[in-house]
Design brief:
This protein is an alpha/beta fold. The protein has 15 helices and twelve strands. The strands form two sheets. The protein has a seven-stranded parallel β-sheet, with helices on both faces. Strands 2-1-3-4-5 form a five-stranded parallel β-sheet. Helix 6 crosses helix 8. Bound molecules: glyoxylic acid.
Length: 354
């Protein structure tokens, strides 16, 4: 802890002296987490940048203190920007999330306070769908479980029933949430000759369904019919525990479940119990309730593949996300080529009022 607070104060004094050496008229912004250094340099062309390159964890109080006097923030999906924080920051004008999901932002409170909020859609769609496929294949074909077995020196000879898994080709893929990433998953499924079912708040237009080869079904049918069920819906109060004990009980015991979306959409304790009791074949999880903590019961079961929220983590895509978040921040604070027109405004009505 001592070294953490030491590096925190070093980082604060570094950025304070950086601020003092620059013009007092430039807006001040905070980048809450470590990021590609060239993105900090881009922001520094327009703003006095308080960065966190040592990546010191900022709890709610530290975030509030670091945001005092700032006009904008380049935030991360784990930074909670709630009504209490917003109320304490009358000078704040832009919150630019480096993530497509924005359930960490209180959007109505930001809008009411006249603060522009942005996210980073599109640039991560294909990379996230690629990773969804990797997680699906690893889960269905028991890739990590069998590798752990091999690394532990337990492999003595080949046998006909070693690590039998479930096929993807010719199976039924269920997609819960059919936005950009859900559709990218459906396109991949065509190459595997899968039947694609989906459920979403609204049904897609017929020509898009046809192009994807996907059929809209009710949630109960999706749960019942899917051999592999992928979750790619946004987190909200309505989607909290969308997959809990009751839903798991409706799935085939041979099915796999993949959560690429957000922790909290799955009841992780109920999932661990279903996996332990073999009521579900396997699961692949990139996101967790209360992450970076992982429910201890999930760590105890072998039939789950666990990854640390890396679905968008390709070199190219994380750079694109960081630069898009910076583009949004620069434009939202009235600078750069798109001044006043951030490309991914979530509440454009705020811009119209300015
Ligand atoms: C990552 O989880 C994102 O929302 O971009």
């Amino acid at each position: 802890m001592a070294s953490q607070s030491q590096s925190q104060s070093q980082s604060q004094s570094q950025s304070q002296s950086q601020s003092q050496s620059q013009s007092a008229s430039r807006p001040a912004v905070l980048v809450t987490r470590a990021i590609f250094p060239d993105v900090i340099e881009r922001l520094a062309q327009y703003f006095d940048v308080d960065h966190n390159q040592p990546d010191v964890p900022l709890d709610a109080a530290a975030l509030k203190a670091r945001l005092a006097g700032k006009a904008g923030v380049l935030s991360n999906a784990a930074d909670r920007i709630d009504a209490d924080l917003i109320g304490a920051l009358p000078q704040l004008r832009a919150v630019c999330n480096m993530a497509v999901g924005y359930n960490n932002l209180d959007l109505p409170a930001l809008t009411a306070a006249g603060i522009v909020a942005t996210n980073t859609p599109d640039v991560l769609t294909e990379t996230t769908a690629d990773f969804g496929w990797a997680l699906l294949m690893a889960t269905a074909r028991r890739v990590t479980e069998s590798e752990h077995f091999l690394r532990a020196g337990k492999w003595e000879r080949w046998s006909y029933d070693m690590f039998l898994g479930m096929d993807l080709h010719g199976s039924t893929l269920g997609i819960l949430g059919m936005g950009r990433i859900g559709q990218a998953l459906a396109r991949r499924a065509a190459g595997f000759g899968m039947t694609v079912l989906y459920h979403n708040r609204s049904q897609l237009p017929a020509e898009i369904e046809q192009g994807l080869g996907a059929r809209y079904v009710g949630k109960a049918e999706l749960l019942r019919e899917s051999d592999h069920l992928m979750l790619v819906l946004p987190y909200s109060e309505q989607s909290h525990h969308a997959i809990g004990a009751a839903e798991l009980a409706q799935m085939k015991p041979t099915a796999t479940l993949i959560n690429l979306a957000r922790g909290g959409i799955v009841d992780d304790a109920a999932l661990a119990a279903a996996l332990r009791e073999k009521r579900l074949f396997a699961a692949g999880l990139d996101v967790f309730e209360g992450e970076p903590k992982v429910h201890p019961a999930l760590l105890e079961v072998p039939n789950v593949v666990l990854t640390p929220h890396i679905a968008s983590a390709s070199e190219k895509t994380r750079r694109a996300m960081a630069n898009l978040a910076a583009d949004n921040l620069i434009a939202a604070l009235g600078a750069g080529p798109d001044a006043g027109r951030p490309p991914c405004a979530l509440n454009p009505e705020v811009l119209a009022r300015r």
